[in-house]
Amino acid sequence: MNKNNIKIVAADMGYGHQRPAHALRHLSSESVYNINNYLNIPEWEKEYWEKSLKSYEKISRLKKVPLFGSLVFKVMDAFQKIKPLYPFRDLSRPTIQQKYFYSFIKKGLGSDLVKKIDKDNSIFLTTFFVAAYIAEYHNFSGDIYCVVCDTDASRAWAPLNPRNSRIKYFLPSEKVKERFLMYGMREENLYVTGFPLPKELVGENKNEIKKQLKRRIINLDPEKKYRNEYKNLLKSIIPDLNISNTNKEPLTITFAVGGAGAQKEIGKKLLEELIIPIKNNEIKLNLVAGVRTEVRDYFNNCIKENNLLNQIDKVQVIFERKKDNYFEEFNKVLKKTDILWTKPSELSFFCALGLPIIITSPIGSQEDFNRNWIISMGGGVDSLEIDHVEEWLPDLIKSGRLARAAVDGFLNAENEGVLNIEKVLNFDK
Q1: How many CB atoms within 10 Å of residue 399?
Q2: What percent of the chain has a predicted confidence (pLDDT) above 90?
Q3: Which of 208, 313, 343, 356 might form a disulfide with 402, Cβ 3.0–4.6 angstroms?
Q4: Backbone φ and ψ of 357, nearest 5°
Q5: How far apart are CA 143 and CA 125, in angstroms?
Q6: Do 220 and 118 fall into the same domain?
């Protein structure tokens, strides 16, 4: 299969669907299509998607409002809640959420885009489950593939009639495959590939991961506790690693907010609590605003208040107006990052890059599962009270705990998702 035959479809909703689509963009000769935002989208469809997105973002931000906000969020979250994996049982019964989406699909939602991109022998590759529903319902002529973008998936990810569906799934793990079998999917339509991480961060034969891990392990283990205890393991992974190297650089922390701009206050608090090591060039802080201008302005005000304007060697805001530019810039920043500090979104999978994650509070059922997955991989730790970060973060570093998380994430989580997807598609490079 070549670039001319693959159509990639995402959804312009936060970053969760577009980030993996960006990692797969080289598979197509065309730009990534967004099911809810493309040239000449029918006005009624655009209005439908805009209302849905605004409602979600508003409710996400409401969660921090005592009582009322929390209650509203819990009601919304109940519709997308993931049920416990055990015991194994039949979970194929459709949900209210699915029936809601299908009611609009039957009215023609998405049919315009399907007609535009449907060509002989083409493949519909999407990172958004509703787009997969749409392609199947409106009779897209070629194969339909859907990439699961979280560490587990609710019933909504599988189609209304899973046993008769021709949608094929790229799954992050064997456990999620078991989940989809309980949803009623046929096994021949399920491929365990792992999440598609950016190729520029993985490299050929994982050489880019190992290059960054070699540099990062020195910063994360200044007391050499982890390196001395696990030197044989480290040598097997990175043969040219100098176990006794003490050429430590400033520790680089990248704090990333979600697509709805939630938890930006944590970034401000990090800057305030770590101001002394930042000013002493012991820590560099990247505050990731993504494409949110209000978050960029909020972070810039924080920097100004702490007298760090124009000192990008100490703290900088990562912001781009377009999402593709943001993803590219973010990936560049990660190459120089030692710790990724974020809520457990699709970025949970980035622990597979040997990048330890400090996990902020999950927002919703889906992120609870993502958080548990990071912990089970050994790829990160929960954030403690941010008010005392200047005490507990140095202790984590000195103990070698985050160095261990970097290595465990690399070893235990799948990091060649793009390559595995290319193999299933028989992609001609």
Answers
A1: 14
A2: 81
A3: 356
A4: -110, 130
A5: 8
A6: no
* pLDDT at site 74: 52
**Residue 429 covered by a domain:** no
Regarding whether 302 and 210 lie in a shared domain, the answer is yes
| Segment 238-250, tens digit of pLDDT | 999 989 888 788 9
Per the DSSP assignment, residues forming a β-bridge with 358 are: 341, 381
pTM of the model: 0.92
- Per-residue pLDDT band at 76 (split at 50, 70, 90): very low
> Distance between CA 349 and CA 369 in Å, rounded?
12
- The answer to whether residues 128 and 208 belong to one domain is no
CA–CA dist 126, 76 (Å, integer): 24
Whether residues 28 and 106 share a domain: the answer is yes
pLDDT digits (tens, 9 = 90+) for 204-227: 999 999 999 999 999 999 999 999
Amino acid at 19: R
Q: Read out DSSP for 308-344?
A: -TT-TTTEEEEE-SSHHHHHHHHHHHHTT-SEEEE-S
Stated length of the chain: 429
Task: State mean pLDDT over 98-108.
Answer: 92
Domain-located, residue 390: yes
Token pair 């990660």 is found at 334
Residue that has been written with the tokens 């927002």 in this structure: 363
- Range of the structural domain that residue 346 is part of: 199-412
116 and 211: one domain? no
376 Cβ contact partners less than 8 Å away, ≥ 6 residues apart = none
